[in-house]
Specification:
Layout: H1 19-31, H2 38-49, H3 54-64, H4 71-83, H5 89-129, H6 134-173, H7 184-193, E1 200-207, H8 210-217, H9 219-237, E2 241-246, E3 249-255, H10 259-274, E4 292-298, H11 304-320, E5 326-327
Parallel strand pairs: 4-5
Antiparallel strand pairs: 1-3, 1-4, 2-3
Length: 328
Amino acid sequence: MLETKNSGRGQPAAASTDYGIGARTLSFLHEQRLEPTPANYSLGYIYLTERKSLAARAVDLILIGGERLDQKRAHQITADHVRAGSADGPDQQSAIRHQTLQLSEIAAGATAITGKFNRDLSSGLTALDEGADITAIVRSMVERSRESEAALASASRQIETLRREVETAKGDAARDALTGLHNRRGVEVEVRALPARADSSLVICDIDHFKSINDRYGHVVGDRVLKLVASSLAKSCHPHLVARWGGEEFIILLNGLSPKDAAMIVDKARLDLSERDVRLRATDKPMGAITFSAGVAALNARPFDDAVSEADALLYQAKAAGRNRVSV
């Protein structure tokens, strides 16, 4: 749940005693078709009372685009707000804040343009009532209409560009720079979005003898192997989520599948990778088979960390049994 600031000797801030803000918060949730859960209420409260916060600006980006704040994005914004400044560092946060500030300024400018045009229109109508030259007034209003339309179109384009930039920045924070797959943060977001169902599995894969590859061929070749494995896993396990867990480890979320069924998919992915003809780019000499070992555990409704621990233990069993195999 999001936290709100207190003031005084442990007393709630003045805004929290304002029953009107409570009604407005519930009204906001109703408009967005969100359930009035504690987390959603906290997000709505922050959106209405902390307008300069990153969470409020993230919501504004969605609403300005004419979209509704759905539950998945509400969860993501809530999580990002709680973790702000911890997972991504100040540079990432600063970039997003800068972009959202620009967006606010552009939107305010568009509003000012519209207001000026409305005032000019009212002035023109008043002049008509007073008997001024109709032709001159109409010509002037047409010209001002064109100027306002061009300015609004420009603002709209800038808003769309900034929306894309912010979405890209948010996406980059959840992506591994080398492979393009989700990173740990991206996996955590996806896990929170999984529907509560009995059948879901988690797999941890580790490239066999990866240290030897780095030692023998260097880190440039090692990085290429990581990208190859990432691409092969993503293709073989589609449409399930494949992410880089760290180092030479990958994690796969298979929603709707039991560990037994998940293991069949991952074992086929293992075979697909091992059958690839991998060669050194500089000499065209074969490197030999690239393989991985994997552990498969049930995720279901239990804590994510428990499933990770079990899958990790099964992975070590696969390694101890000779590598290049899947342990369930």
